[in-house]
Amino acid sequence: MSKKYDDELLELFCQTVDKFTMSEILSNMLTPQEREELATRLQIFKKLIKGENQRRIAKDLGVSIATITRGSRELQYGKPGIRKLYKK
Question: Domain of 48?
Answer without folding.
Answer: 36-88
